[in-house]
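Need a sequence for this fold. Nothing fancy.
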């Protein structure tokens, strides 16, 4: 079965109510805007998928990307490091109104929890968060005279990520900082859906340049000239 889909809508048709969704991106860098907004459009038209748990570095900015998902009412909970942004109104209003939950995770811990999920490591210890509210209720232990907090792996039903190149077997490259969490998320999700700026034939990508091997990729859709979150915000996108 081909991993390349002819439309974004078809590539996203496996996402259902109540799923956990990892979304690549560090702010706008690497954010799969077209995948996100196609999912928002589907929700507005059908009322599904809703009640989602979204895992990302932040909780949206302005009215595009993850913020658009929150404004639409699709998101039940955010798992992120930075719920604040330049314009965090979507998340802030929903959170203060009790309409969305938040699991706050230190950034390095977030990355390592996702990596652990992909590597099959159920838990690990980190000194980050020791002595804070984030550590409350979690197992703690002393190693070499320093206290550490146990953190659990983080996995998801689906990952939505943005790649630069993809071949038809699912091998991926990323553009500079747009790489960020995406390779880890591809490993930690049951189903990885990729928007790629260009889809090429197997063998067209130098094996030495492959960042994410095709074994971690399930669905690919070509999105030439993808939108950039910051450009949309500067243009006043609503």
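Here you go.
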């Amino acid at each position: 079965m081909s991993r390349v889909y002819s439309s974004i809508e078809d590539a996203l048709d496996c996402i259902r109510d109540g799923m956990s969704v990892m979304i690549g991106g560090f702010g706008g860098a690497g954010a799969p805007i077209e995948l996100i907004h196609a999912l928002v459009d589907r929700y507005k038209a059908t009322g599904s998928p809703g009640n989602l748990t979204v895992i990302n570095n932040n909780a949206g900015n302005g009215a595009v990307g993850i913020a658009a998902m929150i404004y639409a009412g699709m998101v039940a909970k955010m798992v992120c490091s930075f719920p604040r942004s330049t314009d965090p109104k979507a998340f802030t209003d929903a959170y203060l109104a009790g309409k969305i939950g938040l699991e706050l995770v230190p950034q390095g811990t977030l990355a390592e929890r996702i990596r652990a999920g992909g590597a099959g490591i159920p838990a690990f210890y980190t000194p980050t968060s020791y002595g804070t509210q984030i550590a409350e209720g979690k197992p703690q232990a002393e190693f070499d005279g320093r206290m550490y907090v146990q953190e659990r792996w983080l996995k998801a039903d689906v990952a939505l990520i943005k790649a630069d190149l993809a071949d038809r077997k699912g091998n991926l490259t990323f553009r500079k900082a747009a790489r960020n969490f995406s390779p880890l998320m591809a490993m930690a999700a049951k189903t990885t859906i990729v928007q790629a700026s260009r889809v090429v034939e197997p063998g067209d990508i130098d094996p030495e340049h492959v960042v994410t091997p095709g074994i971690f990729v399930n669905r690919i859709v070509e999105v030439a000239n993808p939108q950039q979150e910051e450009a949309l915000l500067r243009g006043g996108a609503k």
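For context: The chain has a mean pLDDT of 96.
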